[in-house]
Fold this sequence. Notes:
alpha+beta, 3-stranded antiparallel beta sheet, two-stranded antiparallel ribbon, 8 helices, 9 strands
Amino acid sequence: MKAIKVTHKLKHDNPELFGAVDSIYSGRIPKTFVRGQEVCLAYDIRVDLQALDGWQEVVEPSIGENQKRGALIEVNGEFTYGFINLTAEEIAARDEITMPRNTFKLALLQGYGVKNSDVDALFSVLISQGLATEIQVEEMKILWYESGVFKNTTPELFQFAATLTAMNPSISITEAQLKKIFTDHAGI
Length: 188
């Protein structure tokens, strides 16, 4: 991919193409390009003219494990991408965090008052109101009572927490709070 720094001249000659002066443009190179008094056709394949006008290849930076690509910037006359450090939440969302079942259930009890009896009541409501099949509830029971670990990548766990909160007004646990249990456990 190529980019060019927008100058007053480029902006004046090609106002429909370029944004603000001193910004960096990295879109498609146009087929028709105004160069002063000259209208250049087939400009997109004229690498000689592109180089004269300031188009350059964008240099891909080395990005660390806990970073993501940022905005296009100019460094020492070259165009490259900056980088942004990932937040703890972004790292946690990317990485799988496991917690022993009892540690997770204790965190729910101590932090949010979620007891096994609340979960049992939820299972009954799900079946009686037709919100889940018996097989789905059995799968949830296995996860809740028999799984050795809970994972932050298990979508059913977040659905389960949302349903529990909706069914029992005395319990309020958001997705963010549930994720925090995992990040706190992992020390993130």
